[in-house]
Write a structure and sequence with these properties.
The protein has 176 residues and is an alpha/beta fold. The chain has helices at 24-36, 56-67, 82-89, 101-115, 137-145, 156-170; strands at 12-17, 39-45, 73-78, 93-98, 123-127. Strands 3-2-1-4-5 form a 5-stranded parallel beta sheet, with helices on both faces. Helix 1 links the parallel strand 1 and strand 2 (39-45). Helix 2 packs antiparallel against helix 6.
């Protein structure tokens, strides 16, 4: 028996993630979600057990820079459960991108978990476009740790800000 999808006047997608940092692939996912939903809320999630390269405030700032100019998009921060945020914002669906079989398997487990919550989160998995399948935040962080800013994997405004943040951490004012 198929569960009924929540219907509302405004269709809202919730796109949760750590976005450490937000990549061009994440931006593509948000743009595609905007073709389906009236409103997209990008939630920069915080997990106290996880170590991030960028602080919560920096990840929110970088996401806002990456998504600048996209109407209908809001960036929020949350350290709670995704299902609770889903209910709080009145989301119609969780939207997650999948690049490969590994992503798909993981997201399917998460979708099952979230659908069993009292908030009943409906999940929509979108396959990444071929151009973005090789992009990951992990690959970006590896480049950054080597002192390189992978501009092709990031939005220009975010890449520039990352350069400033990293130069400030080194204290020398040089771009990485």
């Amino acid at each position: 028996m198929m569960k009924e999808i929540k219907k509302s006047a405004v269709r809202t997608a919730l796109i949760p993630g750590s976005f450490d940092p937000m990549t061009a692939g994440h931006v593509e996912l948000v743009r595609r979600a905007l073709c389906i939903f009236d409103r997209v809320i990008v939630a920069v999630m915080n997990n106290s057990e996880k170590e991030y390269m960028f602080s919560d405030a920096e990840r929110v700032e970088l996401a806002r820079l990456s998504l600048g100019g996209l109407e209908g998009v809001e960036v929020v921060s949350s350290d709670g459960l995704t299902a609770e945020l889903y209910a709080a914002v009145g989301a119609s669906a969780l939207v997650k991108g999948v690049r490969n079989r590994t992503d798909f398997s993981y997201e399917l487990i998460q979708a099952d978990f979230n659908s069993e919550r009292p908030e009943h989160c409906e999940t929509l998995l979108l396959a990444a476009s071929e151009k973005y399948r090789g992009i990951s935040s992990t690959a970006v962080r590896r480049s950054l740790q080597k002192g390189r800013i992978p501009g092709k994997l990031l939005e220009p405004a975010a890449a520039a800000r990352i350069g400033e943040l990293l130069a400030g951490r080194r204290g020398d004012g040089r771009e990485g």
